[in-house]
Specification:
Blueprint (H helix, E strand, L loop, with lengths): L1 H46 L27
Length: 74
Amino acid sequence: MERLNSKLYLQNWYIIKENERLRKKAQILNQENQALLSELKQKLSKSSPSSPTNGIPDLNVNPTTNTTPNTSEP
């Protein structure tokens, strides 16, 4: 039993470390994405000053979630 606990502890530790690594990578990618989006908006606003957003969606806006409870779940 102790060996199984040790094995599970080690697996959990590896999962936590991988999760931290992926979270950092996601933050970096999000920052790069925001910088590129800002650059694109600036370039488009220079070429067409009459429209401030030029139809570019805001990627930071969370999609609306369905607030209706799912009755099929217990």
